[in-house]
Amino acid sequence: MKFGISILSVAVCLLSVSGPAAGQTSASRFPRSADGKPDLNGIWQAMNNANWDLRDHSAHAGPVVSLGAEFAEPGGTGVVEGGDIPYLPAALAKKKANFENRYTDDPEIKCYMPGIPRATYMPYPFQIVQSPKYIVMAYEFASASRTIYMEKVPEAPFDSWMGQSVGRWEGDTLVVDVTGLNDQTWFDRAGDFHSDQLHVVERYTPISAEVIQYEATIEDPQVFSRPWKISMPLYKHLEKGARLNEFKCVEFVEELIYGKYRKRTGK
To answer: Binning pLDDT at 50, 70 and 90, where does residue 261 land?
Structure first.
C-alpha cells in the first residue's frame, strides 16, 4: 500500500510541474526582444490553400486541360469565421463575375502587389524584421513589402497596393491597423474583392516559438454588409539557411501585358 501511495504522489507532482499550472504559457515561452515584446523576427508562411479560395472548396481541374494534374487547383478548409463572406447583393454579382473571369482578371496573374491581407497567405514565405519603432514585412511574391509604424503617423496621403500600416501591442499581440488600400487587389483566386473603402485590422498572437496565430478583421461598407474575419496559423521556417528567394515576377508577365504593343514587321 505504501508503494502505491508513493507512485501516486510522484505522478501528481509531475503533473503539477508539467501542466499550465507551472506558470509557463505558450506565449510566455515565445522569444523576447530587448524591449520585452515577443520577438517576431524570422521567415513565416501560411500552410493552407486560402489563396485559391478563402472558403471551403474542393479540388478541381486547372485552366489548361492538356496539363492534367499539373496546375490543378487543390481543395482546402476555409479560413473565414462562420464559413461565408457577407456580400451586399450587387457586390455578390460582381464577385461571381470575377470568378468566371478569374484566369484573366486576377491581379496575381499580372504580378501586381498582393495587398493586405492576401500577401500573408499566398503560397510564398515572408520575413519579419522587428524593431521598437518599425516592423518591416518583406514578401517573396513580387518583392512586395510594407513598413508597420509603431508610433502614430498622419493619415495615408493616397491609396496604394499595400496601404499604410500602423501597429501597437496589446499584451503579447501585435495589432496592425491597415488603411489607404486601393481597390485593385483581390482576396483570393476565386474573385473575392473589395473597394477602396477597405479597412483591415490584423492580429499576430504568438502561441509557441514556431507558430503565430493570425487574424484579420475586414470591413468595407461598399461591398460587405458587416465586418468579417479570417484566421489561420503562420509557421516559422526552421530549416538551415532559411531565406526569401527572389521572385520578381514582373519580367514573367511583360509579354502578357505589353506584347500586343510590340511593333510588328513583315508577315
So the answer is: confident
With cell 511583360, the residue in question is 254
Domain assignments of the chain as residue spans, ordered by start: 25-261
Rounded Cα distance between 114 and 112, Å, is 6
Amino acid letter for position 175: V
Backbone angles phi, psi at 154, to 5 degrees: -60, 160
Residue 31's closest CA among 256, 231, 209, 254? 209
CB distance 46 to 121 below 8 Å: yes
Cell of residue 171, nine digits:
499584451
Rounded to whole angstroms, how far apart are CA atoms 91 and 218? Answer: 15
| pTM score over 0.85 | yes
| Beta strand 199-208 pairing with 126-130 | unpaired
Quick one: average pLDDT of 208-237? 98
Whose grid coordinates read 484579420? 216
205 with 185: CB under 8 angstroms?
no
* Torsion angle, alpha carbons of 106, 110, 111, 113, to 10: -60
As a whole number of angstroms, the distance between CA 113 and CA 107 comes to 8
Distance of CA 68 to the CA centre of its chain: 29
Q: Measured between alpha carbons, how far is 197 from 119 in angstroms, rounded to an integer?
A: 18
**Identity of residue 256:** L
| Dist. CA 251–CA 176, nearest whole Å | 32
